[in-house]
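TL;DR need structure tokens for one chain.
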Amino acid sequence: MKSYLSILLLFLIMSCSVDDSSNVNQTEADIKKYIEEHNLNAQRSDSGLYYVIEEQGNGDKPTSTSTVTVNYKGYFLNGSTFDQSGSDGITFGLNQLIAGWTEGITYFNEGGEGMLLIPSHLGYGSQTYNGIPGGSVLLFDIKLLNVN
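>> reply
TL;DR here they are.
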């Protein structure tokens, strides 16, 4: 019986990793298509995050545990907006956010501006969250106003 359960568990784990891999590959293809269609000069990190630095900024560089104030607009590949800050921005602890933000904001210095193209595995994954469908690529135009 233990052997049967072990094999079943292994099968389930393998099945999940295959599905995750195909989803990662699809969101990667979607991001590359978006970059090409919009003629963006994007960089890709080892995690699969894409980012565009339009203005590096001259201030402090945040770490993954910094508290930052950011002006942002979040939208989907089709251009529809799902969230945005007011003009004064909003303050976040980077270690309290989705992995794409925790990593992505650290590529900018205070005063920097650009874009984050976040694959679903660095966003909300396959789970629907606050109206954001599972598997979604998330795009953010950002301006890093302050690093605390």
